[in-house]
Amino acid sequence: MGSAPQHSRDPLEFRPKMAETPPTRPAPEPDEASLEPDAQAYLELRQLILAPEQEALERLHQRVDDPASRTEDVGSVVAEAIQLRRKQGGDEALSAALAPTIETALRESVRKDPGTLADALFPVMGPAIRRSILETLRSFLESFNQVLDQSLSVKGLKWRLEALRTGRSFTEVALLHSLVFRVEQVFLIHKKTGLPIGHAVASAVAMQDPSLVSGMLSAIQDFVRDSFHAAQGQGINRMNVGDMDVWIEEGPYAILACVIRGVAPRDLRDRMAEVLENVHREYSAQLDQFEGDSAPFTKVHDEISRCLEHRYKEEAKAKSFAAVYATAAIVILLVGGWFGWRALQYARWDRVVNTLREQPGLVITSFGREHGKFVVRGLRDPLAAEPAQFIRTSNVNSSDGEFHWGGYYALDDGIVEQRAKSILSPPSTAILAVKSGVLTVSGAASANWVKDIQIRGLLVPGIHAVELSPELNPARLAFNQAKTEIEKIVVKFPVGTAALSYSERVELRKFAESVQSLLQAGDSLHQTLTLEVLGHTDSTGAEVSNLDLSQRRADRVALELGQLGVPERVLRARGVGTTNPLRTEDSEENRQFNRSATFRVSVPAP
Amino acid sequence: MLQKKICMLGSFAVGKTSLVRRFVESIYSDVYQTTVGVKIDKKNVQVEDKEVSLVLWDIYGEDDYQKMRWTYLRGASGYLLVADGTRKATLEKAVSLEQKVREEVGVIPFVLVINKSDLIRDWELDSALESQLAAQGWNILRSSAKTGEGVEESFALLARKMLG
Predict the structure, then answer these.
(1) DSSP secondary structure string, A62-85?
(2) Given a cut of 90, is residue A272 above it in pLDDT?
C-alpha cells in the first residue's frame, strides 16, 4: 500500500516504461482474451493503479496538441510574460524579435486602409511635423534677420530694441507690428454631419446662428470637393472676402474654422492645428460616435477659444499719438518760439529805449509796435546824442525800428553847456560850465570877449545867470591891458640930452590918456597904483653922468605927464643909467632904444 | 443641446422650399440652392420635453440641369421625402430616391410628405402606391405649404423617429 500513493503523487516514475510507447499516444490496450490469467491480473492491477495518471496525462497531451487551447493558455499570460521579460532586462532582444512583425503589421494596415493609421497618428503627427518645419523656418528667418539687420531705419532700430527687450526674434517683432487682425468667431464643426460642436465668439461681434453657418460651411466644403474631385481631407482651407478671412483646418472628425478680420499671422494656423489636435486627442471617441448631442463637448469651448486671438497695431497707435504729440510740440515750439522771439525783440528794443530815456536831450513820449515795427516817438535836442549810435551798440536790427523826433531845447546842464559853447564861441583858454542854469566862465579870455558875455550868456536857452571868475573881471582886464600897453611904451631921447622932441611930446599926449584910463580902471578896482618912470642912457660916457642924464630924462617925462594931467602922487621918476638896458647895443638903432624912458605900473599888494 | 442634421429630398418643384419657408430660421437666400445645390435652415422641435434642433439641408431637387449632390446626405440623421400630390411622377421619384438613399448612406429614418394638400381635387396620386408604401412601414403625411397643414407634424414625427 506504501507505494501506491507515491505513484499517484509522482506519475513520472513510470516514465522509463512509457518511453517504450510513442509519447503522444496512449499505450495500446493488450487483447484481454489472448492474455494469460497472470498477465490478465497484472493488467487489471496496472489499470487500477495507473488509470488516474493516465487520464491526466491524456488531458495534458490533448491540451498541448490542440492549437486553440494552446493559444488560450499563451494568450492569458502573454502580457505578463512580456512584462517579466522586460523586468529581466531582455528588452532589446524582445524588441528585435517583435520589430519585423510590427513592421509587417503596420504595412498591412496601411495597405488595407491608410485612413485608420493616419487617424490614429493624426494627434502626434501634427506637432512633430510642425516642430520640424519650425526648425527649418527658424534657420531661414535667422538669415532673413541678417538681411534686415542692415536696415537701419528708425522703425527697424525700435523693433530691434524691442526684440532685445522682450527676447523675441527681430522678425517676430517686425511681424507683430506689421500685422493687425482679430479672430471674431471660431467654429468647431463635426465633419460628417456638418453640425457645430463648439462655437466661440469674440465680444461685440455680430454673429449668425452657428448651426446654419456650420452647415453651410461644410456644404461649401463638400461642394468644392465634389466639384473638383478632391480627395477627402482636401478642401478649402482658406476663404477670403474683403478684409474677412475664413481659415479652415481639417481633422479626421472635425473641422476648425476661424473667421478673421484683417491679416492674421501664420502662427494662428499653427494654433488652430494645435487646438484641433487637442480636440481630437481628448474627444476621439465622442467625435467618432457623435450623433448631434453636444453634451460631451462642454469643455471644448475653452479649447477653441484659444484661437480667439487678436492683435492691435499698438505700435501704430502709439506712433500716431507720438506724431500728434510731435506735431503739437512743434506747433507749441514754433508758436512759443515766435512769441519768445517777439518778446526777446521787444525786450531788446525796450532796453534800447530805456538807454535813450537816460540820455540828456532826449524825451521818449511813446514806444510800441506799429505795422510790425518798433516805433519810438519823442523830442530831441539838436545837441543830444544821436540815437543811431545806441542802436549800433545794442543787438537790435535798426531796420526793425523807426524814430520820430520833435525838436526842443533841453535844460539838462550838459546840453545847456554845449549849447552855450556853441553859441558863445569862447576862446580855447576860457572854461565854460553850467550848473542848474548858471553859466560859470573861468580861465583866460580877452577883455573884448568877456565884455558882453554877461548879456550874451543870458541869451542862451537854459541859462538864467552868468558868473565870471574874478580873473575875468572887465575892469581888471582893462587895467591889465592898459598896464601892458603902458609898459610897452618907449620914449626916446637924442644923444646926451634929456630934452623931448616934438614928436615925442605928441606921443606923450596920447600916452597920458592911456594913463588916465589906467588910473580909472585902478579906481574901479579900488587899487592905488604907482606909475614909475624909468630913465635910461646908452653905455657911452661916464657912468655918473649917465646916471644923472637918466634921472633927468625920467624927471622930464614925469614933468611932461604931470603937465598933461597925470596926478603927481602916482608919478615916480627914477634914473637907472645903463643898469637896465632895453636892448644890447650892437647897433646904433638898438643903442637909440637905450637912450629912453620907460614905464612900470606897480600895484601895492593888498 | 441635441442637434440633428436632416435633409429634404424630392423632385424638382415639389414645394420643399415653400414647405419649410414659414417654419424655419433661415439666413440664406434660396439662390444657394441653385448655386451650391443646398440651402441650410434650422427648425427647433419639441420631442417629449426634449428640444431638438433640426439643421435642415434643403437639397436641390434633381432636374434636367443639375444632378443631386449625394454628398450632402452624408451624416444626416433622417430626411423628409417630399412629393407633389398633383404630380404622380414625383411620388415615384420619391420611391426611387428612398432606394438611392439606402444605397448611399444606409437605412435612416424618414417621413414621406405629400405636399399641396390644399389642391387635393387636382391630385393625381396613385393611392395604390401610397397604401403599398404605408404597408411597407413608410410614414406618410399630407401637407400644404399654403395652409401650413402637416408641416409641424412632419418635423415632429421625423424627430421622434430619429430619437426613437
Answers:
(1) HHHH-HHHHHHHHHHHHHHHHHHH
(2) yes
- Could you tell me the strand order of the sheet in which B140-142 lies? B25-26, B38-47, B50-59, B2-10, B78-84, B110-115, B140-142
Contact with chain A for residue B139, Cβ under 8 A: no
Q: For residue B55, give how far its alpha carbon lies from the nearest alpha carbon of chain A (Å).
A: 7
Indicate whether this complex's ipTM tops 0.90: no
User: In this structure, what are the phi and psi dihedrals at residue A568, rounded to the nearest 5 degrees?
Assistant: -65, -25
Rounded (10°) angle between helices A114-149 and A266-288: 170
User: Are the beta carbons of A539 and A578 closer than 8 angstroms?
Assistant: yes
Shortest distance, CA B160 to any CA of chain A (angstroms): 14
∠ CA A118-A121-A124, nearest 5°, is 140
SS3 A130: helix
A228-264 pLDDT tens trace? 887 766 788 888 887 788 999 988 899 999 999 888 8
Quickly tell me which residue has 499563451 as its cell: A74
**Residue A335 pLDDT greater than 50, yes or no:** yes
* Chain A contact probe: residue of B55, B69, B162 with most A CBs at under 10 A: B55
Q: How far is Cα A497 from Cα A251, in angstroms, rounded to an integer?
A: 169
Contact residues on chain B for A234, CB-CB shorter than 8 A: none
Question: A294–B72: do the CB atoms touch at under 8 Å?
Answer: no
User: Exposure of B22 by Cβ count < 10 A (0-12 exposed, 13-18 middle, 19+ buried)?
Assistant: exposed
* CA gap A183, A200 in Å, rounded: 10
A9-13, A115-119, A416-420, B105-109 — which is least confidently predicted? A9-13
Q: Give the pLDDT confidence score for residue A572 in this predicted structure.
A: 92
pTM: 0.44
A236-240, B58-62, B128-132, B133-137: which has the minimum mean pLDDT?
B58-62
CB contacts of A221 in chain B (<8 Å) are none
- Chain B residue with Cα closest to A196: B3
B37 shares contact with chain A (CB less than 8 Å): yes
Contact B3 A215 (CB under 8 A): no
Q: How many helices (H) and strands (E) does chain B have?
A: 5, 7
Please list every residue in chain A whose beta carbon sits closer than 8 Å to the beta carbon of residue B26: 212
> Is A193 within 8 Å of B57 when comparing Cβ atoms?
no
- The Cα A449–Cα A434 span in angstroms is 18
Highest mean pLDDT among A275-279, A495-499, B30-34: A275-279
CA A57 to chain centre: 106
Instruction: Write the DSSP symbol of residue B147.
Output: T
Answer whether A215 sits within 8 Å of B27, measured CB to CB: no
| CB contact (8 A) between residue B2 and residue A293 | yes
Half-sphere exposure at residue A435, Cβ-oriented, CA atoms within 13 angstroms: 4
